[in-house]
Design a protein that fits this description.
seven-stranded mixed beta sheet, single chain, Spore Coat Polysaccharide Biosynthesis Protein SpsA, Chain A, globular
């Protein structure tokens, strides 16, 4: 059996070297799907570390992941984002898993593994509000995996078979600056609005209030974001704000569609 590490990337020269180095010696190949609009040294840094570079234009995160699944050559695929690192403990677990083969006739075979993830914002780890353990379904038997492309953001792979959990962690260096945080959340708000529109949902003025309040309450109270102090308050408030931005975009899309 064998393993491909798959990394979608765009302008990630700050993170990509550490990402690839965290899985050094683990995989049979590292495949970086580089956005055609990437303009920094990401590709050069990948090639220096032995990664295979493929290029694609961004359509959606799900489409990007399906593309790289098709480009990988090994039966097991481990997805990493450029700003993530695999811990040595996680790599050791993965090395044991990928020696096994999935029986094509067994629909109950284990074909995916969830991985717990630590999230760091502005240099500080966040332990609540849904950001830990933040399990990610990242180790996949390629022949049984596909991402639903109607999900433009926060995509989760669909598998034909069962999943289990690993105990080794991913480390996610989420954002370091306010500028980076704002840019990322604006992009997510736009993609969220487009996805909801394509699913037939339409904006309602009341949702500009109810949806953000619901999201803030879920993260700050139900998921105990308050335990992370001022950072927890800021993040929960910011996510609520960008939830409102997505609803505002959706409302505007409806208004534009009604124009003669």
């Amino acid at each position: 059996m064998g393993l491909s590490v798959a990394i979608p990337a765009r302008n990630e020269e700050r993170y990509i070297a550490g990402c690839i180095e965290s899985v050094e010696g683990l995989a049979d190949e590292v495949v970086v799907l580089l956005d055609t609009e990437s303009s920094d040294r990401t590709g050069e840094l990948c090639r220096e570390r032995g990664a295979r570079i493929e290029r694609a234009s961004f359509v959606s995160f799900a489409h990007l992941r399906n593309q790289v699944l098709d480009l990988c050559r090994q039966p097991w695929v481990f997805f990493l984002d450029a700003d993530e690192r695999a811990t040595p403990e996680l790599c050791a677990e993965i090395a044991v898993v990928v020696v096994s083969e999935v029986d094509p006739a067994n629909e109950e075979a284990v074909v995916g593994y969830w991985v717990p993830r630590h999230n760091t914002f502005f240099g500080r780890p966040v332990r609540h509000a849904g950001w830990y353990p933040d399990h990610q379904l990242r180790l996949l038997w390629r022949a049984r995996a596909r991402y639903p492309e109607e999900e433009r953001v926060h995509e989760v792979v669909q598998l034909r078979g069962r999943t289990e959990r690993l105990s080794g962690h991913l480390l996610h260096y989420n954002v370091d600056t306010l500028r980076e945080f704002r840019a990322k959340q604006r992009r997510y708000a736009r993609l969220e609005a487009e996805m909801l529109w394509e699913k037939g949902q339409r904006g309602r003025p009341r949702k500009l209030v109810t949806q953000p309040l619901r999201e803030f309450w879920r993260r700050y109270v139900t998921l105990a974001g308050w335990k992370d102090g001022w950072l927890g308050l800021f993040l929960c408030g910011a996510i609520a704000y960008y939830t409102a931005q997505a609803q505002w975009r959706l409302l505007r899309m409806g208004g534009q569609a009604r124009k003669p």
